[in-house]
Structures are given as structure tokens and as C-alpha cells.
Design a protein that fits this description.
The protein is an alpha/beta fold and 316 residues long. It is 37% helix and 16% strand. The structure holds NADP nicotinamide-adenine-dinucleotide phosphate.
């Protein structure tokens, strides 16, 4: 199977490409953060250019597209709502239009479409995003549903290793504690994260099952961000006393964070042959991957030369 992964330089994209290229022919699209000598095929493209996604699609002719590219930083979205709209709402609609009837599509969305006032959200529950990020991602879901009713829309939350070591909460706790630095963890933000590598395995099972529609693709256990930090420390042999509890309200973040983003994954769990993993088994694997040198492999793919590899940048 040939798979096109957008956002391949990001946290989910690079893990998707690494894992799925073991069995499939993978083409990843990056934009401003080139990957060098990747273990899969890569293309450079600014997907916001006119018809650029359609051109990449024609060039690669994939069987499946997994659309991970996004403006995924909540505070950046507050700073530039118009850009967030184009990236998170309009581009997914274009990807959905181009793929409809021609290739399978997984569109990656987020738990942040909910306001977090009660938790235990199912796919039937009404979203009510609190931030520009959540609002634009929800509009992206609607655009995908309108243009491509066959698409899978996966609301996710994830942690893991990234190419720059800075994209996930687990890396934040791990690297700070490893350096002996004190960190704070929110006691009043609950979530159900999945290790990126486990998320990829789950998404690939969804492809095999030929699913379509909206799914909560999150871990099977809930945890506060503070307790998640403690679990990182305990799993990875780091000093948990470096973590202090704090309320998200006292942290002064730009974008409003939802408190209770516990999503139920029962709809998907009832379909898949294997159980959906949880964060604690995921953290065990996170540390195993560290011991096997996986973060170094990802880091070795980051290009610092500044060379422009983008064939589409000059109106191509
Ligand atoms: N990380 C999380 O905790 C989390 C939680 C819930 C949902 N999600 C969702 O999961 C998906 C992946 O998130 P992530 O954390 O992996 O994101 P990320 O690490 O911030 O990566 C974003 C990716 O989008 C690409 N991109 C941005 N603008 C582009 C453009 N104009 N053309 C082509 N590519 C462009 C970036 O490419 P360059 O860097 O090369 O420019 C990068 O590869 C997103 O849909 C996000 O909303 C993430």
C-alpha cells in the first residue's frame, strides 16, 4: 500500500512514517523543517499554495492519505487566528475534496474540540471548543465530513518522541528531569494520551478494517498532566520530586485550556480486534524506545543546512 503522510516533520507524522514504512511504501510531506536522509520517501511542499496538495497527490497517487499537517500549537493559533483557519479548517477541506473517491483518508483532529466541563465524551456529544485551535480544528472536521463522507476523522491525543525533542509533554518532563530541572504539572487537566507509535498501530488497524466516520482514537486510561509527569519519572528512573503540582489557571497560558478532556474510545474499541493501549504501557515503550536510540534516529533526520528542497515554492 502507498501512503501519503502530511506533516511528516511533526510529532505524529514522523512516527507514522517510521512505523508504517516497515510494511508500506510511505511518502511524507514536510514544509519548513526538512528531513534529511529519512528512512522513507519525502517531498517538500507548502500545502497552502494553490493546488499544491492536488499536485502532490497526482505525483504520488497514494492509496491512503493521513493528514497530520496542522497549526497544532494552541497559543500560536490565538496569535494568528486567520492562519489557523486556513491551516486547520480550509486545508483539510481541500485534502478531503482531492481524495474523495480516489484514496482513503484519515484526517487527524483533536480532543480540544470539547470544552472539558464534564469529560467522558463520546462521538455523539456536542463539541464546544474554548480556543481558536479547537474551533478551527472542529471546522476542519466539518469541512472533511462535507467533502469526503468516506473519510476517517480521528480525534487524538498523543505523546512520544519527536525530531526536535520538543513536541510532546512526555519529552518536556523527560528532558527537564533528566537535566535535574524542576517542572510543574497541571493537576486539573485530565486527558487520555496514546504513545504516538501505539496511535499509529491503531490507525493502521482502522485502515485495515476500512472504517469511515468520526472516532475517538485515544488511550484507554485517563490521567492528569501532573500524574502523567510522575509516571514519566517512575517509568524512566527519574526524580519525581522535581515535579510540583499546579493548577492550569495559575500558569497564565494564552489559549484557554479545557480541564477534563477524557474521551471515551468505546466506539472504536468495539470494532478493533486488539485492545487500544493506554498511557502506562505506552510510557514503558517510550522508555524502551529511548534505550534503543529511537530519539537519536529521529534527530538525525533534522536538516540544519538551510537548503531549500521545495520544488513548489516558486509557483510550481
Ligand atoms: N501533539 C499533540 O499533542 C496533539 C494533540 C491532539 C491532536 N493533535 C493533532 O495531531 C496532528 C499532528 O500534530 P503534531 O503534534 O504532530 O503537529 P506538529 O508537530 O506541530 O507538526 C505540524 C506539521 O504540520 C506541517 N505543516 C504546517 N504548515 C504546513 C504547510 N503550510 N504545508 C505543509 N505542511 C505544513 C509542519 O511541517 P514543517 O514543520 O515542515 O513546516 C509539521 O510537519 C494535528 O492535526 C494536531 O492538531 C496533536
Amino acid at each position: 500500500m502507498r501512503i501519503l503522510v502530511t506533516g511528516v516533520s511533526g510529532l505524529l507524522g514522523i512516527n507514522l512514517a517510521m512505523e508504517s514504512s516497515k510494511r508500506h511504501e510511505v511518502y511524507g510531506v514536510f514544509n519548513t523543517n526538512p528531513l534529511v536522509n529519512p528512512l522513507f520517501n519525502c517531498i517538500s511542499a507548502d500545502l497552502l499554495g494553490k493546488d499544491v496538495f492536488a499536485e502532490v497527490f497526482e505525483q504520488i497517487q497514494p492509496d491512503w492519505v493521513i493528514h497530520c499537517a496542522a497549526l497544532a500549537n494552541l497559543d500560536d493559533c490565538e496569535d494568528d487566528p486567520a492562519f489557523a483557519e486556513v491551516m486547520n479548517s480550509e486545508l483539510p477541506g481541500e485534502v478531503a475534496r482531492v481524495t474523495y473517491g480516489r484514496a482513503g483518508l484519515i484526517h487527524i483532529s483533536t480532543d480540544a474540540v470539547f470544552d472539558g466541563s464534564r469529560g467522558d465524551y463520546t462521538e455523539e456529544d456536542e463539541p464546544n471548543p474554548l480556543s481558536v485551535y479547537g474551533r478551527t480544528k472542529l471546522a476542519g472536521e466539518w469541512a472533511v465530513m462535507d467533502a469526503n463522507p468516506d473519510a476517517i476523522i480521528a480525534r487524538v491525543n498523543l505523546f512520544g518522541w519527536s525530531s526536535r525533542g520538543k513536541r510532546s509533554l512526555s519529552e518536556f518532563f523527560f528532558y527537564n528531569m533528566q537535566a535535574g530541572k524542576p517542572v510543574k504539572g497541571f493537576t486539573d487537566v485530565l486527558f487520555c494520551p496514546l504513545l504516538a507509535n501505539d496511535l499509529v498501530a491503531t490507525l493502521m488497524q482502522m485502515v485495515q478494517q476500512k472504517l469511515s466516520g468520526l472516532y475517538h482514537v485515544v488511550g484507554s486510561k485517563r490521567v492528569s498532566k501532573y500524574d502523567f509527569g510522575l509516571a514519566v519519572a517512575r517509568t524512566c528512573g527519574l526524580d519525581e520530586h522535581l515535579i510540583s503540582p499546579i493548577s492550569v489557571k495559575d500558569f497564565g497560558l494564552k489559549a484557554t485550556r479545557a480541564n477534563n478532556l477524557i474521551l471515551k474510545n468505546d466506539k472504536l474499541a468495539g470494532i478493533l480486534p486488539n485492545p487500544i493501549p493506554d498511557y502506562s504501557t505506552g510510557l514503558g515503550r517510550f522508555y524502551e524506545l529511548y534505550q534503543q536510540g529511537y530519539p537519536q534516529v529521529l534527530r538525525s533526520m533534522v536538516d540544519n543546512s538551510g537548503k531549500d528542497l521545495n520544488p513548489y515554492r516558486n509557483g510550481g
